[in-house]
Amino acid sequence: MPSKNSRVRVALLAAVVAVTGLATAGPALAATPAVAPAVTSSQDQDPAIPTDFVNLPTSPLRADSPQEFTVTYRNTTSTPTTVAPQLLVTSPDSGPFLAPSDIEVERRTGHGCWVAVPLGSQTGTLFTDLVGAERVLGAGETLKERYRVTVLDPEAGGTVEPRVALYG
User: Fold this and answer.
1) Hey, which residues does 84 pair with through a beta bridge?
2) E strand residue ranges, 62-141
3) Beta bridge pairs of residue 134
4) Contact 82, 134 (CB under 8 A)
5) What is the pLDDT of residues 122-163, one digit of tens each?
6) What is the torsion angle, in degrees rounded to the nearest 10, for the CA atoms of residue 96, residue 101, residue 103 and residue 109?
7) Taking the model in full, what pTM does it have?
8) How many other β-carbons are positioned within 10 Å of the β-carbon of residue 103?
9) Which is nearest to 158 in space by CA: 110, 112, 103?
10) Any bridge partners for residue 163, and if so which?
11) Is the peptide bond before 66 cis (omega within 30 degrees of 0)?
12) Using one digit for the tens of pLDDT, what is the confidence trace for 63-108?
């Protein structure tokens, strides 16, 4: 029967070997290059980045009644073009910055119903998202997107800036 001291020695020796192995493996593991996961579907890829914008006429933000805007763009090229309508609502230069809770933006569907459009916010500018608004216009086709902006905070001021993002 092994003595109590030999069991302790074996356990201590095993611990020393394990610690030494981890200490020498640590630098080797740190030097191993990370492997990037392969992209397997288009949903995993980054969204396309616009190559240009077509700015449309601007209008002051009015608190007295809802305002309607039509974002229109005609593809005058001979090839299909990917576009996305967008509304920017910029804060006054003198402030205060607009918050998404200051206004409501809605988009008119093909069936005539108004649906709420989520707003993003960055440094005093509210904006509708381009992702999901993209569509392909065939040669000679025209984009017409109708928006309604309602001011919820009567103290809110700014400028509505419709535009169209162009891709490719």
Assistant:
1) 165
2) 67-74, 81-90, 103-108, 114-116, 119-122, 125-128, 135-137
3) none
4) yes
5) 999 999 999 889 999 999 999 999 999 999 999 999 999 999
6) 150
7) 0.70
8) 23
9) 103
10) 55, 86
11) no
12) 989 999 999 999 999 999 999 999 999 999 988 999 999 999 999 9
